[in-house]
């Protein structure tokens, strides 16, 4: 069943956004706690982050936003394309205008990574629409800027210069 009433839908969308942000915030807090040697506090942050993910997922499903894989990939393409063509250029220009160097750096990193993500989703959608899965072994993510590489990481990240051995590998 999909929530249809306008006010309930708006509130559920806001709840989804809040739970999603809490999920990410707690994962970031967990990384920091881990770096500081608080392993059990990090564990607690990660566990509660998962609970927030469950809440967000439930809201997302109730809103009727979960489709089949090709539809989900199209939503990913649209989201990444919006970020590349509209959102991050404006955010980056504003940060430059206001001389906010940290914001310039992070919005530029995100913009460059999102370009790659959109292309990867487009390829994945074509593959899924033919009833096949992608033929990839590994996905490498730069932990500094989010640059994404398939099957082999570059020696140095082309966006931020991070070395290959720092990339996070998804197998």
Lay out the secondary structure:
Elements: H1 6-35, H2 39-62, H3 69-97, H4 101-129, E1 139-141, E2 148-150, E3 168-170
Antiparallel strand pairs: 1-2, 1-3
Helix pairs in contact: 1-2, 3-4
Characteristic key phrases:
4 helices, mainly alpha, 3 domains, 171 residues, three-stranded antiparallel sheet, globular, 3 strands, Rubrerythrin, domain 2, Ferritin
Task: Please tell me about this protein's structure.
Strand 1 and strand 2 form a beta hairpin. The chain contains four helices and three strands; from the N terminus they run H-H-H-H-E-E-E. The protein folds into three domains: about 5-60, Ferritin, CATH 1.20.1260; about 65-135; about 135-170, Rubrerythrin, domain 2 (Single Sheet), CATH 2.20.28.10. The model has no long low-confidence stretch (mean pLDDT about 95). With about 170 residues, the protein is mainly alpha-helical. A three-stranded antiparallel beta sheet has the order 2-1-3. It is about 65% helix and about 5% strand. It starts with 5 loop residues before the first helix and ends with a strand. The longest helix has 30 residues, at about 5-35. It has helices spanning about 5-35, 40-60, 70-95, 100-130; strands at about 140, 150, 170.
